[in-house]
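PROTEIN DESIGN WORKSHEET
SECTION A - STRUCTURE
LENGTH: 267
TOKENS:
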């Protein structure tokens, strides 16, 4: 926090410098990530940052460490202002070009995935600090190869599968409707939440498999950690969102500021 801003906070709240230091050091959570279909980072957090079960999440931790998973709701760019393609290079969409989250950019075909079908879909975005803004969700194009790094050119940017302006947060989620197009096999849904009260934006990748069983209409993610496939199976394990208990348990280990501050200093 800049010195002038710190002094202003001290004067306005009547805090001593020691009290301000204690406040600044307090643990916090962040702002949000796609909950259904569950985002890649939320899935790995649900498995447990210290001992993930799936091969993909183990690789993500090996590449970027456990802190990225405790900060699951903070994949962001503070000064994005709609300049998503300008600021995020190909191959780094899932991390939003943030080195802390680089493990999420690994090009693998075995990321745990939510089963979906083409047609109407109810998206649920898990939010820990509500902000006004616009949500857009994009899907990869037919022929997408999950074994290659995700690039902007892989997404059907001209036809977002969902778009919502200032949805109301209820029960810890922003809920909005969209329509999934005809696809087959493994795909990625890329969500961008651009705040309107700040240039800050949040990003998430959700791995999905088209043609599966559950997941059509209201989503297929479940709470409480991801299941895994049998040894030797070529299919990706099913994705599942973290439970409320898991979210609460990891809050103290998060390093990202929270609370609808409205500024560009998210830490």
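SECTION B - SEQUENCE
RESIDUE ASSIGNMENT:
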């Amino acid at each position: 926090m800049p010195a002038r801003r710190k002094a202003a906070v001290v004067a306005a709240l009547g805090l001593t410098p020691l009290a301000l230091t204690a406040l600044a050091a307090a643990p916090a959570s962040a702002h949000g990530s796609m909950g259904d279909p569950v985002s890649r980072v939320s899935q790995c957090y649900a498995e447990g940052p210290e001992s993930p079960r799936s091969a993909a999440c183990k690789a993500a931790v090996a590449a970027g460490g456990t802190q990225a998973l405790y900060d699951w709701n903070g994949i962001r760019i503070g000064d994005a202002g709609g300049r998503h393609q300008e600021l995020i290079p190909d191959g780094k969409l899932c991390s939003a070009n943030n080195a802390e989250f680089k493990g999420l950019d690994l090009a693998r075909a075995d990321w745990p995935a939510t089963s979906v079908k083409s047609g109407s879909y109810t998206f649920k975005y898990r939010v820990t600090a509500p902000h006004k803004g616009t949500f857009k969700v994009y899907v990869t194009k037919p022929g997408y190869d999950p074994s290659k790094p995700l690039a902007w050119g892989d997404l059907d940017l001209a036809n977002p599968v969902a778009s919502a302006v200032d949805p109301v947060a209820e029960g810890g989620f922003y809920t909005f409707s969209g329509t999934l197009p005809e696809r087959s096999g493994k795909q990625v849904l890329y969500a961008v939440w651009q705040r309107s009260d700040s240039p800050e934006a949040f990003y998430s990748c959700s791995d999905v498999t088209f043609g599966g069983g559950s997941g059509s209409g209201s989503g297929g993610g479940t709470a409480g950690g991801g299941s895994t496939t049998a040894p030797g199976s070529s299919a990706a394990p099913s994705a599942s969102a973290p439970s409320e208990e898991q979210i609460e348990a990891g809050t103290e280990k998060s390093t990202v500021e929270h609370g609808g501050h409205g500024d560009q200093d998210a830490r």
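SECTION C - NOTES
The chain has seven helices and ten strands.
The helical segments are 3-13, 17-25, 40-47, 55-64, 67-70, 84-87, 244-250.
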